[in-house]
Amino acid sequence: MSELASFHDVLFPLAVSFGATGGPERRNEIVALTSGREKRNARFAHSRRHYDAGTGLRSLEDLHEVLAFFEARRGSLHAFRFRDPFDMKSCAPTKSPSPLDQALGIGDGATRRFALVKTYGAGADAYQRPIGRPVAGSLRVATGGTEAPVQDFGFDAATGEILFGAGKAPADGQPVTAGFEFDVPVRFDTDRLSVSLKAFKAGQIPSIPLIEVQP
After folding, report:
1. What pLDDT, on the 0 to 100 scale, is given for residue 3?
2. Are residues 68 and 21 in the same domain?
3. Cβ atoms of 145 and 175 closer than 8 Å
């Protein structure tokens, strides 16, 4: 069963997420050979992000909101949306998404589905990260460099693909590009939150671990 089979399409408290810490993790195996060389192997095709939302708490109101959110998700049972404060756009953090930001593929006149991705790096070493939770209303798509009307396409959250409408498939040879804001699907990486009111008032921040879930 997919880890996203039990997904609540709700956003973790935004003000708290913008103060969170964390980032991507890779899982690689490195074996030292008798020759002195190393054999390296990637265990995961995609990175997995970890966050600590505790560092984003600024008030008792924030703490109360997170506790209510934790209870509504039944701890680690249900995944949800999280706005990564470091990486949440198809473009640079200070810019606004453009429909030309990310290359998704080349049209052939018949294909109507294109996986939504964000590319890191360039050339043969570039990494394409699947994007499964674009922010509603932020998705912009272009074919052949011309922005497509919003009524010409939709997004299939089950597959992570842009879906062009019937008769709207990009023409043969046309580049398909997109721009967007996006959330990360995560769950609580714990089934217990331990909070001391006295410690919180003294500035001791509780740990609230979150972990990305894959489709």
Report:
1. 53
2. yes
3. yes
